[in-house]
Structures are given as C-alpha cells and as structure tokens.
Amino acid sequence: MKKIKLRNILLFLIIPFISCAAQEQKEDSGLILIKGGTFTMGSPKSEPWRGKDEVQHQVTISNFLMAKFEVTQKEYSQVMGNNPSRFRGDNLPVENVSWYDAAAFCNRLSRKNNLAEAYKIEGESVTWNREANGFRLPTEAEWEYACRAGTTTPFNTETSISTKEANYYGTYPYMIETYYFQQRKLKTRPGEYREKTVRVGTFPPNRWGLHDMHGNVWEWCWDWYGKYPSDHQTDPQGPSSGTLKVNRGGGWNDFAKHLRSAYRASNPPGSRTFNLGFRVVRNAE
After folding, report:
1. Pick the CATH number of 16-283 from 2.40.160.60, 3.40.50.720, 3.90.550.10, 3.90.1580.10
2. Which of 180, 181, 236, 273 has the smallest C-beta neighbourhood within 10 Å, fewest atoms?
3. Running along the chain, 285 residues long, what does each successive block of 10 average in pLDDT?
4. Residue 104 DSSP label
C-alpha cells in the first residue's frame, strides 16, 4: 500500500473555499491556482479611454490561489453573521461592504479554517503578514494579472465585451461614445442593462477559470491607491500609506470602458456602496 504524504492530505483539506450556496448547485467554488509569471501591467497609450494612471510597467507575480467567484451573500452571512447587501440573494455577490469589512471577513474565514490570519487589525490600522497562509485580499497587481489571464487587450474577452459576457450598463458598450451615431462600427452593440447584481458564475469564466472579473461588482484590493512605479516590480503591494484603497473590475452600473483590465478606481477604505464587493485569495502552498 502506497504511503500518502501528510502535506498532500493537508492541501486537500484546506484549499477548498467555503460556499454552501454553490455546493447546492453542484459547482466547484474552490480556489484556483494562479501560476506566477511576468506581465505588463497597465495599458498602452493607444488603448481608447485609458487613464493617465495606467502607465505600463513590468511586474512579476508569484504563485497564489484565487477564488473563482466573488464572495456571495450566503458566504458572508455564515462568516460575519449579517448581510449588508442592497440586492438580496444567497448566490448574489455581497456588496455594501467596506475595505475594513472585507479584511475582517478574511481573518474570520481564516480562523474558521484553522489558518493563520493574514491581517493584524487594530481599529483602522491594518497590517499584513505576508507569510500567513490565511485568506486575504488580492494585491492590485495580482488582480490585474489574474483578470488578464494572459491577454494584453482591453478586456480578457479581447477588444470588447458584451452583456452576454458580463453584467454592466449594457447600453454603453465599449467605444459607444465615439461611435454613438455610427453604431455599425462598434464591435459590440448596446445590450441589456439589468440594473442589479446577478448570481455569481452567470457568465463564462476567463481563460484561467475566474468568473466576473469584469462587471457585477467592483472588487476591493489590498493596495492604497497611488502612482505606479516605473521600474520592474516583484509582488508589489502598493504604496505604504494613502487615503484611498484600490477597487477593480467595474460593476453592474458601470460603462464598459470602466470594466477594462487596466482601469483603476478607488474609494476610502470605510466607504460602502451597492456595487462594491470583493473576492479572496491565499498564498500558494
């Protein structure tokens, strides 16, 4: 009889991410291993609607684990004991959560799974133990790397994105501002505006198996918002201080141009809105 290594047993036990709602639908809602690599973060000057804060630079990312879905309301309620969301539904992404709420969720989820807490939280002071194996928020660089999934185009769906691929303000597809009176030139015509969040996993995943990296709700990242460095970075975690925390991906009420892989948004860490949620990651074993 072959011996089974204890390490392999532990990996099997701790990697799955809790998601009773998704389990009921017979879906695998676990963490996906995102293999590290080097990519160009930001957008080229030729990309329509790019922001001045999207300066391209090279970034190397280490392996990490990322949840394939945004945190749902059922998951959040089971861990935190409340549901702050405006749009109610077990399988809808949780929203109306602050950055501090998201960090607290990560720590409680870690304790629930007997993992080391990633954050030390003392009021509004939050420090990150990068060696901890518990749940945490992705860095901005990890988020963009995972969203792109090897693509270099405005979206991980290539040069445009439709309402069959993401939940956003569908009557304003990419480039509508330029071709409003010449819509035959649009790669994606105006589509449905749902005016609310939708069940996680409604749309096809990107090439690496991650759902809703574009649209549905914005996602909090670890980083303070700030100017990108110009030199090559390895596993950057953003500025050491700031007033705004980064959120990425766009939401159900955003125009397509705000869903771009490189688009950067930010909010005060204490703010809560009905189009802002999060997903969790972990260090790879």
Report:
1. 3.90.1580.10
2. 181
3. 42 38 39 98 97 97 98 98 98 98 98 97 96 97 98 96 97 92 89 98 97 98 97 97 98 98 98 98 93
4. H
